[in-house]
Amino acid sequence: MNSDHLHIVSFNVPWPADYGGVIDVYYRIVALAKAGIHIHLHCYAYGRTPAKELEQWCDEVCYYPRETGLRHQLQSRPYIVASRCSKALLQRLRQDDYPILLEGLHCCLTLEQLAGQGRPIYVRSHNVEHDYYRSLAKAEKQIWKRLFYLVEAQKLQRYEPVLRNATKVLAISSSDAAHFRAIGCKNVELLPPSHGHTEVTSAIGKGDYILYHGNLSVGENIRATLFILDNIASHSPYQFIFAGKDPDPSLVTAVSKSPNVRLVSNPDETVMHRLIEQAHIHLLITDQATGVKLKLMNALYEGRYCVANSTMVQGTQLSDACTIADTPDTLITAIDQLMGKDFTEAELLRRRQILNDVDSTQNISSFIF
Predict the structure, then answer these.
(1) Residue range 209-357, CATH number
(2) CB 292 within 8 A of CB 306
(3) Which of 5, 40, 62, 300 is deepest in the core (most CB within 10 A)?
(4) Looking at residue 105, what is its pLDDT?
(5) DSSP element (H, E) containing 169
(6) Do domains 5-196 and 209-357 have the same CATH topology?
Protein backbone atom coordinates (compact mmCIF):
# COMPACT_ATOMS: atom_id res chain seq x y z
CA MET A 1 0.00 0.00 0.00
CA ASN A 2 1.27 3.46 -0.91
CA SER A 3 0.55 5.25 2.36
CA ASP A 4 1.00 8.83 1.16
CA HIS A 5 -1.96 8.58 -1.25
CA LEU A 6 -5.58 8.96 -0.20
CA HIS A 7 -8.94 8.80 -1.97
CA ILE A 8 -11.53 11.24 -0.61
CA VAL A 9 -15.17 10.78 -1.63
CA SER A 10 -17.17 13.96 -0.97
CA PHE A 11 -20.96 14.30 -0.84
CA ASN A 12 -20.68 17.51 -2.91
CA VAL A 13 -18.11 19.71 -4.61
CA PRO A 14 -16.28 21.37 -1.67
CA TRP A 15 -15.69 24.69 -3.41
CA PRO A 16 -16.68 27.41 -2.84
CA ALA A 17 -16.28 26.66 0.85
CA ASP A 18 -19.32 28.66 1.86
CA TYR A 19 -21.35 26.48 4.23
CA GLY A 20 -20.58 24.22 7.18
CA GLY A 21 -20.24 20.79 5.59
CA VAL A 22 -18.12 21.78 2.60
CA ILE A 23 -15.97 24.11 4.71
CA ASP A 24 -15.00 21.08 6.80
CA VAL A 25 -14.24 19.01 3.67
CA TYR A 26 -12.29 21.74 1.88
CA TYR A 27 -9.99 22.69 4.74
CA ARG A 28 -9.36 19.03 5.53
CA ILE A 29 -8.16 18.64 1.93
CA VAL A 30 -5.90 21.67 2.35
CA ALA A 31 -4.45 20.38 5.64
CA LEU A 32 -3.79 16.92 4.19
CA ALA A 33 -2.16 18.36 1.06
CA LYS A 34 0.09 20.57 3.17
CA ALA A 35 1.07 17.47 5.15
CA GLY A 36 2.34 15.90 1.92
CA ILE A 37 -0.58 13.58 1.17
CA HIS A 38 -1.43 12.95 -2.49
CA ILE A 39 -5.19 13.39 -2.69
CA HIS A 40 -7.46 11.75 -5.24
CA LEU A 41 -10.74 13.63 -4.81
CA HIS A 42 -14.10 12.27 -5.96
CA CYS A 43 -17.11 14.60 -5.80
CA TYR A 44 -20.79 13.96 -6.24
CA ALA A 45 -21.86 17.16 -7.97
CA TYR A 46 -25.16 18.48 -6.69
CA GLY A 47 -26.07 22.07 -7.59
CA ARG A 48 -22.38 22.91 -8.05
CA THR A 49 -19.96 22.96 -10.94
CA PRO A 50 -16.37 21.67 -11.29
CA ALA A 51 -13.92 23.90 -9.40
CA LYS A 52 -10.38 24.66 -10.60
CA GLU A 53 -9.54 25.77 -7.04
CA LEU A 54 -9.45 22.12 -5.95
CA GLU A 55 -6.75 21.16 -8.44
CA GLN A 56 -4.00 23.00 -6.58
CA TRP A 57 -4.47 20.62 -3.62
CA CYS A 58 -5.32 17.33 -5.37
CA ASP A 59 -3.51 15.01 -7.74
CA GLU A 60 -6.80 14.38 -9.48
CA VAL A 61 -10.39 15.59 -9.12
CA CYS A 62 -13.23 13.48 -10.50
CA TYR A 63 -16.90 14.41 -10.67
CA TYR A 64 -19.95 12.15 -10.65
CA PRO A 65 -23.64 13.09 -11.01
CA ARG A 66 -25.95 12.68 -8.05
CA GLU A 67 -28.89 10.65 -9.34
CA THR A 68 -31.91 12.38 -7.84
CA GLY A 69 -35.57 11.52 -8.37
CA LEU A 70 -38.46 9.44 -7.10
CA ARG A 71 -36.83 6.10 -8.01
CA HIS A 72 -34.10 6.71 -5.43
CA GLN A 73 -36.51 8.10 -2.85
CA LEU A 74 -38.45 4.82 -2.91
CA GLN A 75 -35.40 2.63 -2.16
CA SER A 76 -34.84 1.01 1.23
CA ARG A 77 -31.55 2.87 1.56
CA PRO A 78 -31.72 6.52 2.66
CA TYR A 79 -32.19 8.93 -0.23
CA ILE A 80 -28.93 10.74 0.57
CA VAL A 81 -27.11 7.40 0.11
CA ALA A 82 -29.12 5.85 -2.75
CA SER A 83 -28.74 8.97 -4.89
CA ARG A 84 -24.93 8.80 -4.57
CA CYS A 85 -24.26 5.66 -6.54
CA SER A 86 -21.65 5.58 -9.31
CA LYS A 87 -20.20 2.58 -11.15
CA ALA A 88 -17.47 4.86 -12.51
CA LEU A 89 -16.41 5.78 -8.97
CA LEU A 90 -16.30 2.14 -7.90
CA GLN A 91 -14.21 1.21 -10.95
CA ARG A 92 -11.76 4.04 -10.23
CA LEU A 93 -11.36 3.07 -6.56
CA ARG A 94 -10.62 -0.52 -7.53
CA GLN A 95 -7.63 0.49 -9.66
CA ASP A 96 -5.37 0.75 -6.58
CA ASP A 97 -5.36 -0.04 -2.87
CA TYR A 98 -4.96 3.48 -1.44
CA PRO A 99 -6.90 4.26 1.77
CA ILE A 100 -10.33 5.85 1.32
CA LEU A 101 -11.93 8.64 3.34
CA LEU A 102 -15.70 8.89 2.91
CA GLU A 103 -17.22 12.26 3.75
CA GLY A 104 -20.47 11.57 5.55
CA LEU A 105 -22.90 8.69 5.77
CA HIS A 106 -24.05 10.02 2.38
CA CYS A 107 -21.09 8.30 0.68
CA CYS A 108 -21.25 4.97 2.51
CA LEU A 109 -22.54 2.92 -0.41
CA THR A 110 -18.83 2.70 -1.19
CA LEU A 111 -18.27 1.26 2.29
CA GLU A 112 -20.88 -1.43 1.55
CA GLN A 113 -19.22 -2.26 -1.75
CA LEU A 114 -15.59 -2.43 -0.57
CA ALA A 115 -15.80 -3.47 3.09
CA GLY A 116 -14.12 -6.69 4.17
CA GLN A 117 -11.34 -6.54 1.58
CA GLY A 118 -8.61 -5.48 4.02
CA ARG A 119 -8.48 -1.95 2.67
CA PRO A 120 -8.53 1.00 5.10
CA ILE A 121 -11.82 2.86 4.72
CA TYR A 122 -12.48 5.81 7.04
CA VAL A 123 -15.75 7.69 7.47
CA ARG A 124 -15.91 11.32 8.54
CA SER A 125 -19.30 11.71 10.21
CA HIS A 126 -20.71 15.23 9.96
CA ASN A 127 -23.79 14.47 12.10
CA VAL A 128 -25.84 11.74 13.68
CA GLU A 129 -27.90 12.00 10.53
CA HIS A 130 -31.20 10.57 11.77
CA ASP A 131 -31.19 13.08 14.65
CA TYR A 132 -30.53 15.87 12.16
CA TYR A 133 -33.40 14.80 9.90
CA ARG A 134 -35.80 14.52 12.83
CA SER A 135 -34.89 18.07 13.79
CA LEU A 136 -35.62 19.14 10.21
CA ALA A 137 -39.01 17.41 10.39
CA LYS A 138 -39.82 19.09 13.68
CA ALA A 139 -39.18 22.53 12.19
CA GLU A 140 -40.88 21.92 8.82
CA LYS A 141 -44.33 23.46 8.28
CA GLN A 142 -45.20 21.73 4.99
CA ILE A 143 -46.69 18.31 5.70
CA TRP A 144 -45.19 16.52 2.70
CA LYS A 145 -41.68 17.77 3.49
CA ARG A 146 -42.11 16.83 7.16
CA LEU A 147 -43.14 13.32 6.10
CA PHE A 148 -40.12 13.02 3.81
CA TYR A 149 -37.75 14.02 6.63
CA LEU A 150 -39.36 11.56 9.06
CA VAL A 151 -39.16 8.68 6.59
CA GLU A 152 -35.57 9.57 5.76
CA ALA A 153 -34.74 9.69 9.49
CA GLN A 154 -36.07 6.15 9.93
CA LYS A 155 -34.08 4.91 6.93
CA LEU A 156 -30.93 6.63 8.20
CA GLN A 157 -31.26 5.05 11.64
CA ARG A 158 -31.66 1.59 10.09
CA TYR A 159 -28.72 2.20 7.74
CA GLU A 160 -26.34 3.70 10.30
CA PRO A 161 -24.89 0.33 11.49
CA VAL A 162 -23.02 0.19 8.14
CA LEU A 163 -20.47 2.35 9.99
CA ARG A 164 -19.38 -0.72 11.97
CA ASN A 165 -17.56 -1.81 8.80
CA ALA A 166 -15.36 1.31 8.75
CA THR A 167 -11.71 1.09 9.76
CA LYS A 168 -12.35 4.22 11.82
CA VAL A 169 -15.21 6.67 12.31
CA LEU A 170 -14.09 10.28 12.73
CA ALA A 171 -16.80 12.04 14.76
CA ILE A 172 -17.24 15.81 14.71
CA SER A 173 -18.20 16.13 18.40
CA SER A 174 -17.71 14.15 21.60
CA SER A 175 -21.46 13.49 21.89
CA ASP A 176 -21.51 12.07 18.35
CA ALA A 177 -18.46 9.92 19.17
CA ALA A 178 -20.25 8.48 22.20
CA HIS A 179 -23.27 7.68 20.02
CA PHE A 180 -21.21 5.77 17.43
CA ARG A 181 -19.46 3.76 20.14
CA ALA A 182 -22.86 2.91 21.63
CA ILE A 183 -24.11 1.43 18.32
CA GLY A 184 -21.08 -0.85 18.06
CA CYS A 185 -18.50 1.05 15.99
CA LYS A 186 -15.18 -0.39 17.16
CA ASN A 187 -12.81 2.46 16.38
CA VAL A 188 -14.15 5.98 16.89
CA GLU A 189 -12.11 9.15 17.32
CA LEU A 190 -13.06 12.78 17.81
CA LEU A 191 -11.88 14.96 14.93
CA PRO A 192 -12.82 18.64 15.38
CA PRO A 193 -13.97 20.47 12.24
CA SER A 194 -11.42 21.72 9.76
CA HIS A 195 -11.96 25.44 9.31
CA GLY A 196 -8.88 27.10 7.81
CA HIS A 197 -8.04 29.30 10.77
CA THR A 198 -4.44 29.05 11.93
CA GLU A 199 -4.44 31.65 14.70
CA VAL A 200 -6.81 33.73 16.79
CA THR A 201 -6.95 37.25 15.34
CA SER A 202 -9.59 38.77 17.63
CA ALA A 203 -9.13 42.54 17.96
CA ILE A 204 -8.34 44.05 21.34
CA GLY A 205 -10.76 46.79 22.40
CA LYS A 206 -14.45 47.38 21.98
CA GLY A 207 -17.15 47.26 19.35
CA ASP A 208 -20.58 48.86 19.48
CA TYR A 209 -22.90 46.13 18.19
CA ILE A 210 -23.98 42.51 18.67
CA LEU A 211 -23.76 40.21 15.63
CA TYR A 212 -25.69 37.12 14.60
CA HIS A 213 -24.58 35.59 11.31
CA GLY A 214 -25.41 32.53 9.23
CA ASN A 215 -27.43 31.35 6.26
CA LEU A 216 -30.65 33.23 6.93
CA SER A 217 -32.74 31.04 4.63
CA VAL A 218 -32.19 27.94 6.80
CA GLY A 219 -34.89 27.03 9.31
CA GLU A 220 -32.52 26.70 12.26
CA ASN A 221 -31.13 30.20 11.68
CA ILE A 222 -34.54 31.73 10.95
CA ARG A 223 -35.83 30.45 14.30
CA ALA A 224 -32.75 31.75 16.10
CA THR A 225 -33.07 35.18 14.50
CA LEU A 226 -36.75 35.50 15.39
CA PHE A 227 -36.01 34.37 18.95
CA ILE A 228 -33.33 37.04 19.31
CA LEU A 229 -35.58 39.73 17.81
CA ASP A 230 -38.55 38.88 20.02
CA ASN A 231 -36.81 38.09 23.28
CA ILE A 232 -33.50 39.96 23.36
CA ALA A 233 -33.11 42.81 20.86
CA SER A 234 -36.52 44.25 21.68
CA HIS A 235 -35.49 44.46 25.36
CA SER A 236 -32.01 45.88 24.80
CA PRO A 237 -30.64 49.37 24.12
CA TYR A 238 -27.78 48.05 21.96
CA GLN A 239 -27.50 47.74 18.20
CA PHE A 240 -27.96 44.27 16.69
CA ILE A 241 -26.81 43.22 13.22
CA PHE A 242 -28.04 40.10 11.44
CA ALA A 243 -25.89 39.15 8.46
CA GLY A 244 -26.12 36.26 6.07
CA LYS A 245 -27.24 34.62 2.89
CA ASP A 246 -30.74 34.97 1.39
CA PRO A 247 -32.74 36.27 4.38
CA ASP A 248 -36.19 34.72 4.66
CA PRO A 249 -38.99 37.26 3.96
CA SER A 250 -40.26 36.83 7.52
CA LEU A 251 -36.90 38.11 8.81
CA VAL A 252 -36.90 41.10 6.50
CA THR A 253 -40.34 42.08 7.82
CA ALA A 254 -39.43 41.50 11.46
CA VAL A 255 -36.18 43.46 11.24
CA SER A 256 -37.94 46.41 9.60
CA LYS A 257 -40.04 46.82 12.77
CA SER A 258 -37.01 46.94 15.09
CA PRO A 259 -35.29 50.35 15.33
CA ASN A 260 -32.07 48.97 16.90
CA VAL A 261 -31.63 46.13 14.37
CA ARG A 262 -29.96 46.14 10.95
CA LEU A 263 -30.01 43.38 8.34
CA VAL A 264 -27.03 42.81 6.03
CA SER A 265 -28.14 40.58 3.15
CA ASN A 266 -25.68 38.42 1.22
CA PRO A 267 -22.47 40.09 2.40
CA ASP A 268 -19.36 39.22 0.41
CA GLU A 269 -16.36 37.69 2.16
CA THR A 270 -14.72 41.06 2.86
CA VAL A 271 -17.84 42.58 4.42
CA MET A 272 -18.55 39.45 6.47
CA HIS A 273 -15.01 39.38 7.81
CA ARG A 274 -15.26 43.06 8.80
CA LEU A 275 -18.61 42.51 10.55
CA ILE A 276 -17.19 39.57 12.54
CA GLU A 277 -14.00 41.42 13.43
CA GLN A 278 -15.67 44.66 14.56
CA ALA A 279 -18.58 43.22 16.56
CA HIS A 280 -18.24 43.38 20.33
CA ILE A 281 -20.41 40.32 20.97
CA HIS A 282 -21.26 37.34 18.80
CA LEU A 283 -24.64 35.92 19.71
CA LEU A 284 -24.66 32.19 18.93
CA ILE A 285 -28.05 30.57 19.45
CA THR A 286 -29.34 27.26 18.08
CA ASP A 287 -32.02 24.72 18.88
CA GLN A 288 -30.25 21.87 17.05
CA ALA A 289 -27.44 19.97 18.75
CA THR A 290 -26.19 18.53 15.47
CA GLY A 291 -22.59 18.62 14.29
CA VAL A 292 -20.34 21.53 15.14
CA LYS A 293 -21.36 25.01 14.06
CA LEU A 294 -18.55 26.50 12.01
CA LYS A 295 -19.96 29.96 12.63
CA LEU A 296 -18.89 29.35 16.25
CA MET A 297 -15.34 28.63 15.09
CA ASN A 298 -15.31 31.77 12.92
CA ALA A 299 -16.49 33.91 15.83
CA LEU A 300 -13.94 32.44 18.25
CA TYR A 301 -11.00 32.84 15.87
CA GLU A 302 -11.88 36.25 14.42
CA GLY A 303 -14.26 37.91 16.86
CA ARG A 304 -14.40 39.26 20.39
CA TYR A 305 -16.80 38.01 23.06
CA CYS A 306 -19.07 35.06 22.27
CA VAL A 307 -22.39 34.51 24.05
CA ALA A 308 -23.83 31.09 23.26
CA ASN A 309 -26.55 28.79 24.49
CA SER A 310 -25.70 25.30 25.78
CA THR A 311 -26.96 23.60 22.63
CA MET A 312 -24.51 25.55 20.47
CA VAL A 313 -21.45 24.21 22.32
CA GLN A 314 -22.76 20.73 23.17
CA GLY A 315 -20.04 18.13 22.69
CA THR A 316 -17.46 20.67 21.47
CA GLN A 317 -15.14 21.38 24.44
CA LEU A 318 -15.60 25.07 23.58
CA SER A 319 -17.90 26.17 26.39
CA ASP A 320 -14.97 27.74 28.32
CA ALA A 321 -14.35 30.08 25.39
CA CYS A 322 -17.92 31.43 25.55
CA THR A 323 -20.33 32.97 28.03
CA ILE A 324 -23.13 30.39 28.28
CA ALA A 325 -26.73 31.54 28.74
CA ASP A 326 -29.96 29.72 27.93
CA THR A 327 -32.88 31.99 28.78
CA PRO A 328 -33.80 35.45 27.53
CA ASP A 329 -33.07 36.96 30.96
CA THR A 330 -29.62 35.37 31.28
CA LEU A 331 -28.76 36.22 27.68
CA ILE A 332 -29.70 39.88 28.23
CA THR A 333 -27.68 39.95 31.47
CA ALA A 334 -24.62 38.47 29.73
CA ILE A 335 -24.89 41.05 26.94
CA ASP A 336 -25.23 43.92 29.41
CA GLN A 337 -22.14 42.79 31.33
CA LEU A 338 -19.93 42.22 28.29
CA MET A 339 -20.91 45.41 26.46
CA GLY A 340 -19.35 47.29 29.36
CA LYS A 341 -16.01 45.48 29.10
CA ASP A 342 -13.11 45.80 26.66
CA PHE A 343 -11.86 42.64 25.02
CA THR A 344 -8.38 42.50 26.58
CA GLU A 345 -5.00 40.97 25.84
CA ALA A 346 -5.64 38.55 28.71
CA GLU A 347 -8.90 37.43 27.07
CA LEU A 348 -7.08 36.95 23.78
CA LEU A 349 -4.36 34.79 25.36
CA ARG A 350 -6.97 32.71 27.19
CA ARG A 351 -8.90 32.17 23.94
CA ARG A 352 -5.75 31.08 22.14
CA GLN A 353 -4.95 28.54 24.83
CA ILE A 354 -8.44 27.02 24.77
CA LEU A 355 -8.52 26.72 20.98
CA ASN A 356 -4.99 25.36 20.84
CA ASP A 357 -6.01 22.59 23.25
CA VAL A 358 -9.12 21.71 21.24
CA ASP A 359 -8.07 22.14 17.62
CA SER A 360 -6.31 19.30 15.82
CA THR A 361 -6.80 20.40 12.21
CA GLN A 362 -3.08 20.60 11.53
CA ASN A 363 -2.63 16.96 12.62
CA ILE A 364 -5.39 15.55 10.43
CA SER A 365 -3.05 13.05 8.74
CA SER A 366 -2.36 11.36 12.08
CA PHE A 367 -6.00 10.23 12.22
CA ILE A 368 -5.65 8.31 8.97
CA PHE A 369 -2.02 7.32 8.45
Answers:
(1) 3.40.50.2000
(2) no
(3) 300
(4) 97
(5) strand 168-171
(6) yes
